[in-house]
Amino acid sequence: MAKVLIVYGSTTGNTELVADQIGNLLKANGKEVTLKNVLNATVGELGQNYDLTVLGASTWGEDEIELQEDFVPFYEELDKAELNGKKVAVFGCGDSSYTYFCGAVDLLEQKMKELGATLVNEPLRIDGDPSSAAQDIKEWVEEIGNSL
Ligand SMILES: Cc1cc2nc3c(=O)[nH]c(=O)nc-3n(C[C@H](O)[C@H](O)[C@H](O)COP(=O)(O)O)c2cc1C
Prior knowledge:
The chain is α/β, with parallel strands linked by helices. It has a single domain, classed as Rossmann fold (3-Layer(aba) Sandwich). The chain is 32% helix and 25% strand. It contains four helices and eight strands; from the N terminus they run βαββββαβαββα. Flavin mononucleotide binds next to helix 1, strand 4 and strand 6.
């Protein structure tokens, strides 16, 4: 059974909601899922003993891109993650009325590329209320499932 680690950072609960949905859909697809708030995760466990690592963070800030605050120390450690050649997927919630729509997702995508990780699909960027994005989330998870 393929093992998936999902790590998310969420301030108002939107990215957490999406992380839960991703986890439930993957479980329904027969995957073994470990879901962690970034506060309870370490960079050292990424890619280790998992077939896929999924990272999710919302975007904050006005004039510049700010990662969700709990995610900041984790992001700063990410260079130490042993993700070279490992499968990853990236997602996050944002709002397209801001200059840098889902800028945190862009930062994570860029970092994964620098680390030599393999992105299994295009990053998922949720605009506004995630409860109206159920179909997008479902299709995105199906692509993930096909890569495992
Ligand atoms: C002060 C503030 C700044 C924000 N800045 C951005 C931004 O730069 N880019 C973006 O896409 N969304 C931005 N957002 C929207 C949030 O990312 C969005 O509400 C998201 O759903 C929050 O997810 P969370 O509850 O998982 O933290 C901002 C929201 C607030 C309140």
